[in-house]
Design a protein that fits this description.
Length: 429
């Protein structure tokens, strides 16, 4: 058997891969490490908005993490990301209102970099790893992973392969399908029975004034509904391409830019599927394609005022009269009731009514609801140990593997993987 090309190969250069790489080079500078990504820059959640949460359980999959384990690793995440924690004020009044409605407002330590400054942070992290000897192979797609009698490694789309003593697979949310295909080919048991389905809300800042006191307020409502990824300042709703359809997401630039007086945030319902339905991903794909079909290849948007009156939004709905701000993302005006499953929409609307009591104004008639916002990162491989190992020499972690739900949890997952790799290398000698 030929000797491996690298000690560690990391597939994916998002927070999980970076967390693993930094921990490895910090504790064993002699290791040869290759990081591979199909994108031309280090990507993942660091690239888009780069919002960070430093309080458990936000960003962590609780089935894989204890509070003690997360709090042990979060300081190590802070060491490399160097966050500037945002101050909060006047949240007690919102918390009391929430509690009266059976809702929880979480108090989270947060930092926000902004889409405009995230590239600078990514370049700094990449340069630091390069200075420490880590090699990068960008704009090259991995199509398969192998771990068998002939060795361990990766196969590229052009047929080239690289061998490693250990392989870390951390492709993030967009690598959901790739990860499932790899697990099926390798015979790794996994569960894919959870999906987050929801809408993105856009309104004027004056209609959601809590963002003046708490940048990304985290509300937990009944029926497994929560707010997620609030953006204000210079905030925009954006399209994200997945397979053959578009989803919506939210971005915001840093505070160095003047604002557009808009706020957007996601309202997501977590759905746990039961037999005979087994795939959350397939359900998400079906719902997203349905919405795009109704929207002529684009997501849908509907004004709250139209939704309340039971009529679809149209181009004329988005005028300069009562509906007093233009959408930041030009998608198809329509009727969410034709695309969102009734039970999901009912629970989302109930949460919005609670939220409008806690923060009066969010249900202004001009408020826009965009659909679909779907999070497909609920693969749950059968891990062989606490370091997210799935076979003799392969590890899977991050949002795509269901160990995290955000930047800090993903970075911490990478640290746990690297701790396991270092322990296994020590046992080899």
């Amino acid at each position: 058997m030929s000797s491996p090309d690298y000690d560690v190969i990391i597939v994916g250069t998002g927070p999980t891969g970076l967390g693993a790489a930094f921990h490895l080079v910090e504790h064993s500078s002699s290791l040869s490490i290759l990081m591979v990504d199909r994108e031309k820059i280090c990507s993942g959640g660091l690239l888009n908005d780069c919002k960070q949460n430093y309080t458990f359980p936000i960003g962590f999959a609780v089935e894989n993490w204890s509070r003690e384990e997360a709090e042990r690793l979060l300081p190590q995440v802070e060491k490399w990301l160097q966050p500037v924690i945002k101050e909060k004020q006047n949240i007690d009044v919102y918390r009391r209102r929430a509690e009266r409605l059976g809702t929880t407002l979480l108090d989270i330590r947060q930092a926000h970099v902004g889409t405009d400054r995230s590239l600078r942070l990514i370049q700094y992290l990449r340069d630091e790893l390069s200075r420490r000897g880590v090699q990068f192979l960008l704009e090259r797609e991995v199509t398969d992973i192998f771990d068998n009698a002939s060795g361990t490694g990766i196969v590229m789309s052009d047929g080239e392969s690289f061998r490693g003593r250990r392989v870390v697979v951390s492709p993030g949310r967009k690598g959901f399908s790739f990860l499932q295909q790899v697990m099926e080919r390798m015979g790794i048991f996994y569960i894919d029975n959870v999906v987050d389905v929801g809408i993105r809300i856009e309104t004027k800042r004056e209609n959601y004034p809590i963002v003046n006191d708490y940048y990304d307020p985290k509300f937990i409502f009944p029926n497994s509904v929560r707010t997620f990824c609030t953006n204000s300042g210079l905030a925009k709703v954006v399209l994200e391409r997945y397979q053959e359809f578009n989803l919506v997401n939210g971005h915001a630039l840093s505070e160095h830019h003047s604002g557009n007086n808009l706020v957007n945030f996601a309202l997501l319902k977590t759905i746990g599927l039961k037999n005979p339905v087994r795939s959350g991903q397939q359900m998400a794909v079906f719902l997203a394609r349905l919405a795009n079909e109704i929207g002529g290849g684009m997501p849908l948007m509907q004004r709250v005022g139209d939704f309340r009156m039971g009529k679809r939004s149209s181009g004329e709905t988005f005028n300069e009269d009562l509906y007093d701000f233009p959408p930041s993302c030009q998608v198809t005006p329509g009727d969410l009731g034709l695309a969102v499953p009734a039970k999901i929409m009912r629970h989302l609307w109930e949460a919005m009514k609670r939220l409008d009591t806690i923060v009066p104004g969010v249900l202004h008639p001009s408020t826009i609801m965009y659909y679909p916002e779907i999070k497909m990162y609920a693969n749950k491989p059968a891990f062989l140990d606490s370091h997210f190992r799935v076979s003799a020499c392969v590890y899977m972690a991050g949002d795509g593997a269901g160990t995290s739900r955000g930047i800090t949890g993903a970075w911490a997952s990478g640290i746990r993987v690297s701790e396991g790799i270092l322990q296994s290398f020590a046992a080899d000698f």
